[in-house]
Amino acid sequence: MRWNAACVPDISLTFDNGPEPGVTPHVLDVLARRAIPATFFVVGAKLARPGARALAQRAAEEGHAIGNHTLTHGTPLGELGDEAAVREEIEATQRLIGDLAHPDRLFRPFGGGGHLDERVLSPTAVEVLVAGGYTCVTWNAVPRDWERPRRWPEIAVCQCRAADPAVLVLHDLPTGAMDHLERFLDLAAQDGARFVRGFPDTCVPIRRGRIAGSLDGIVAPAPDP
């Protein structure tokens, strides 16, 4: 498989749902060997587990960004009717991240399986992100590695080519999918893909607490008074 040589994609590599003691170290080892930067969007409840913060600390020390991926990763914020719970999902995780946080206070919402629709955010979530100076990062390439632990690399290659620049969502979870991370990186390298820091404007609707793009379609309607 070769991509169009005239279209060399830029890829922002991100990992959601960790840290996982049995998986995150392997991911970090692979990235270190290839000097590839990534962002790890951590789940607060996992970060609070024994030994997990050390993994996030290692990632930060090796030059990766640490972002917030909600406290429980249980219910998408657009479906969570309790405003106090919405605030806790964001703010409690940020407190747990503490001094490991990226200066832009990166936040990735939970889409309930990679969906980018009104499940993603609620009006309260938008208020919290704006007031707290957060940068909200969405996505445009989701190869569903948790469902396709062996086949996802080829799917990811095609998605990244189509999205260019791509914000690719992978998961450092114990599914076996990250056993194939190097195969994906090899496929991308064959055609000169660039792994970059930062995110394209199209995937950043809120940047440093300011509405930077359209929120249409990713915020649940306000509840009836």
TrEMBL record:
Record-level Gene Ontology MF annotations: hydrolase activity, acting on carbon-nitrogen (but not peptide) bonds
First-level EC class: hydrolase
Pfam families: Polysacc_deac_1
Keywords: Hydrolase
Alphabetical list of InterPro entries matching this protein: Glyco_hydro/deAcase_b/a-brl (IPR011330), NODB_dom (IPR002509), Polysacc_deacetylase_ArnD (IPR050248)
CDD domains: CE4_NodB_like_6s_7s
NodB homology domain ranges (all copies): 9-196
Keyword Heme: no
Protein name: Peptidoglycan-N-acetylglucosamine deacetylase
Species the sequence originates in: Capillimicrobium parvum
Gene name tied to this protein: pgdA_1
